[in-house]
Design a protein that fits this description.
heterodimer, A: alpha/beta, seven-stranded antiparallel β-sheet, 16 helices, about 25% helix, B: alpha/beta, 8 helices, about 10% strand
Chain lengths: ~650, ~260
């Protein structure tokens, strides 16, 4: 008989997913759990017996869940199923997830909703491919509480040694991915041993697992912690919709983390608009609502009519999300067609949707061995680490800081093809670069115009933006080109990395943020030089595409991106400043090409391959380019 | 968060996703307790409004109390009510068992109505705990052009990222109550004081636990005449909610076949 629910009181419902290798006894365990806790309706046991007999099988507990005809005939769980039972302590929602490899998308659908998990391992078969894969995915999906059930102990004669062996195996694997199981329980789903009662305490004659003195599985479930919402983390409210049913503009959404109060100043990202919360609207309640917390769906009004739309992320001003056009992700791939570099997908990040392109596949993770291997594609059911790039600015968080705003799905055509979690390792927060801080700026018109300057100088101004790895030859080439152009009568000046860092950017280091700021300032200065009619050559690694895109914008049309191309091996061989040696020795952190990314240009105006051409030939190529593009009657625009 | 608040917040999120992403959209209003909770949640989600039509597929065989309820609350809640009729039973697949065949009329009626109004999505109040087949449903559940549910190939659904992209001609069923249980529904009705058809309360030792067509729905033995008593009764029962629905029990796979062909 199921325990009676206390009336009028609210009970907690803990969602538990049961995962593990196919045929390791997940559905059987659940059927048994329901039977043992008296949760099956009357007649169900008889019905089970009848159905099992018709198929000439002993009583088959998994039939409780495997409701579909097709599944009964194949005897595997196709989809994810939910079922309820209750104990004196709380209610449980059990999610049964399929073990078959091809059914990964259903396993993911089940496991992503869970508060805790039971990983079932067959005592006879031990840890198998899907055991490891499911363990890994639980971790990736954010399920932090995991208990292990070593099933079918009856098949190994209830052997303590075998149990210890399997326990060691699974503990080792989970330990590698940072998961510590709460309990490891030896069970027999067939007979119900250690499922709902501890075998050692039943006082039965056959003390089959008397050696085990830990909790039974049900007790292991009871000892899972309660669900907590991230109330004490920074506020994140993705805008789901904006309603205008009457005169009021209502911003609707669910608070993913933190607390929102009436009077709070909200920052909407990436638009960077701000407004104060005027009210929290609650239908059918006269009582004024002054505060809402993580997990609540809210409708708010603002004190100003700022333009806000679905996809923006509201936060407090002091703890905003990061802004970026690029991020790293660890993702699981669900589609038939593999994920490949340069393919584009629709990103769904909270309520935001945007096109992203796969810039690179860093590695594919073998969930069996946890090894990361280089690859040019992520196959169906695989896990990969990739870099995704977007034309638009995204507001995002790192998964390790704020799980709910640091995870996303990818859609191709009509289907969800991937889920992933975000890391910004090696990439800067671009927030400072997108914001214009002062609001009281008015730009003043020059009386001397660009054509006047071109007429006087005999050529137009512009930026020659050299980008390439350290050691690719940027500085050498820049100085040689400067001299050659100067001798030919051009007004030309080089902005060089080390020189600028001594003055204008003396306050900046080499963190991703500082590197981005370094390049932002150089881009602005180069743009001013170009505007004054000078040909400005900048020689900076400038590894991030986003930074170069901004520098291009600062130069207002006179920007020429020149890729100084040399492979990492060649650059490391040259190593003119001895930096690669230091980076390899671990003496320099965040070194481009070694421990920080370099994003080569996709559409440079000119590519100079310094491995194929010597210095004289390289200078000639750049000077030829300038003479073609910067002549007096040139179009100062792009090549 | 309290359990009912958690459920409410999730349902509101789902309703708002549906309204934002699917157009034109309608909500099925069967007049039963679940669909009243659903209308109520819509009013919460949209600040007192129900910004899409509510659809009642009328088999013509509902209880009189249900029709009275419909007319009263359609006006009181300011609903855009659309009603549609069902074809006679002779037009339904004769290979289905009798009660299932009768219930399938509703599926045909619904299909006709969806076609007539061109709705791309319909919100339906099914719950996972009602029936094992429904336990496998998705929150956003696609149907092909003929309304068929392919339970073997359902879209992945995780982190509240629902399927909102479809080829032309496809339909979507949205299930904002999927994660609720029967007792959750009653506790919420009690907490929010939501109106329901009086047939749910016991009269002469019997009450309806689930409301369908008069000829294929049976009442259960019960003395519960208040919400509190219903909740108390449910807290201790192990009988299934749809025990009184004849079409679920005719054959092992009858309900599954009904669902695959578009039944709610």
């Amino acid at each position: 008989m199921s325990p009676r629910l206390p009336l009028g009181s609210e009970r907690e419902a803990l969602k538990i997913v049961i995962v593990g290798h196919v045929d390791h006894g997940k559905s059987t365990l659940i059927g048994r759990l329901l039977y043992e806790t008296g949760s099956l309706p009357p007649g169900k046991v008889e019905e089970l017996k009848a159905v099992s007999a018709r198929r000439r099988m002993a009583i088959e507990w998994s039939f409780v869940l495997d409701a579909f005809q097709a599944e009964r005939d194949q005897a595997v769980t196709i989809d994810t199923t939910q079922i309820w039972f209750k104990t004196a302590a709380r209610d449980y929602v059990i999610i049964d997830a399929p073990g078959h490899r091809e059914f990964l998308k259903n396993m993911v659908s089940g496991a992503a909703a869970a508060d805790a998990a039971v990983l079932v391992v067959d005592a006879a078969e031990g840890v198998r491919e899907q055991t490891r894969r499911h363990g890994y995915l639980l971790h990736l999906l954010g399920v932090r509480q995991v208990a292990v059930a070593v099933s079918k102990m009856d098949l190994v004669d209830y052997g303590e040694a075998r149990f210890a062996e399997v326990s060691r195996e699974i503990t080792h694997y989970l330990g590698e991915i940072g998961v510590v199981p709460t309990f490891i329980v030896p069970i027999s789903g067939r007979d119900g041993d250690n499922v709902a009662v501890n075998k050692a305490t039943t006082g039965k004659d056959d003390a089959t697992m008397a050696w085990y003195d830990g909790p039974c599985l049900l007790e292991a479930l009871e000892r899972f912690g309660s669900v907590t919402r991230p109330v004490d983390q920074p506020l994140r409210l993705p805008v789901q919709d904006v309603y205008k049913f009457d005169q009021r503009r209502i911003v609707a959404g669910r608070i993913e983390s933190g607390i929102l109060r009436v009077g709070d100043r909200l920052l909407f990202s990436p638009s960077n608009r701000t407004a104060r919360v005027k009210s929290i609207e609650v239908w059918s309640s006269d009582a004024e609502c002054l505060e809402a917390r993580a997990g609540q769906s809210v409708a708010i009004t603002l004190d100003e009519q700022v333009f806000v739309e679905r996809g923006e992320m509201a936060s407090h001003e002091e703890l905003p999300p990061m802004l970026s056009t690029v991020f790293r992700a660890t993702l699981f791939w669900l589609a038939q067609e593999p994920l490949e570099v340069d393919r584009t997908y629709k990103l769904k990040l909270g309520t935001r949707e945007a096109r992203v392109r796969v810039q690179s596949i860093e590695r594919v993770i073998d969930t069996d061995t946890l090894a990361g291997n280089p690859a040019d594609r992520v196959e169906r059911n695989g896990v990969g680490e990739v870099v995704l790039r977007c034309r638009e600015i995204l507001a995002l968080d790192e998964y390790r800081d704020l799980a709910r705003s640091g995870r996303f799905a990818l859609v191709e055509d009509y289907d969800t093809v991937a889920g992933g979690v975000i890391s910004m390792e090696g990439y800067p927060d671009q927030r400072h670069a997108f914001g214009v801080k002062s609001e009281n700026l008015t730009s003043v018109e020059h009386r001397v115009t660009a054509p006047h300057r071109t007429e006087r100088n005999g050529h137009c101004g512009g930026v020659l933006w050299f980008t390439g790895l350290s050691g690719s030859g940027k500085s050498t080439l820049a100085m040689a080109v400067e001299q050659r152009l100067f001798n030919k009568g051009y007004h030309v000046y080089v902005l060089d990395g080390d020189n600028v860092r001594g003055g204008l950017n003396a306050n900046l280091g080499f963190s991703p943020e500082d590197r981005a700021e370094n390049i932002r300032r150089v881009g602005e200065v180069a743009g001013l030089f170009a505007d004054s009619g000078v040909i400005c050559i900048s020689a900076f690694i400038s590894p991030y595409r986003a930074d170069r895109v901004r520098a291009r914008a600062a130069a207002k049309g006179g920007f020429h991106e020149i890729f100084i191309k040399a492979g990492l091996e060649a650059c490391e061989r040259r190593d003119p400043k001895g930096l690669y040696r230091k980076a390899r020795a671990g003496e320099i952190a965040d070194f481009t090409g070694i421990s920080a990314p370099y994003e080569p240009p996709s559409k440079a105006e000119l590519v100079v391959d310094t491995e194929a051409a010597d210095i004289e030939e390289s200078v000639r190529q750049v000077v030829d380019y300038v003479e073609r593009k910067f002549a007096r009657h040139c179009n100062p625009g792009r090549a | 968060m309290l359990h009912l608040d958690e459920l409410e917040a999730q349902s509101i999120y789902i309703l708002r996703e549906a309204y934002s992403q699917i157009d034109p959209l309608a909500m099925l209003w069967s007049l039963g307790k679940d669909s009243n909770v659903m209308v109520w949640l819509a009013k919460k989600a949209f600040c007192g409004h129900v910004p899409f039509p509510v659809v009642h597929v009328d088999t013509g065989k509902k209880f009189q109390e249900m029709y009275e309820f419909r007319d009263r609350y359609a006006a009181e809640w300011d609903l855009q009510l659309i009603t549609g009729d069902c074809p006679p039973v002779e037009e339904v697949d004769a290979s289905l068992p009798p009660a299932a065949r009768s219930a399938a009329r509703k599926t045909l009626g619904l299909k006709a109505l969806l076609e007539e109004h061109g709705f791309k999505g319909v919100i339906a109040g099914i719950r996972r705990d009602e029936q094992a087949t429904r336990a496998k449903e998705r929150v956003f559940s696609p149907r092909d052009e003929s309304g068929t549910w392919d339970f073997r190939d359902q879209p992945p659904e995780f982190w509240d990222q629902y399927k909102t992209d479809f080829p032309p001609g496809a339909h979507i069923r949205i299930h904002p109550l999927l994660h609720w249980t029967e007792i959750d529904i009653w506790r919420y009705i009690e907490r929010e004081n939501i109106p329901i058809v009086p047939l749910y309360f016991a009269r002469d030792g019997k009450r309806y636990r689930s409301l369908g067509d008069q000829d294929i729905t049976s009442p259960i033995e019960s003395q519960a005449v208040t919400l509190e008593e219903i909740i108390e009764e449910l807290a201790t029962t192990t009988t299934s909610e749809r025990a009184g629905r004849a079409m679920d029990h005719e054959r092992e796979d009858a309900f599954e076949r009904l669902r695959a062909s578009g039944y709610m």
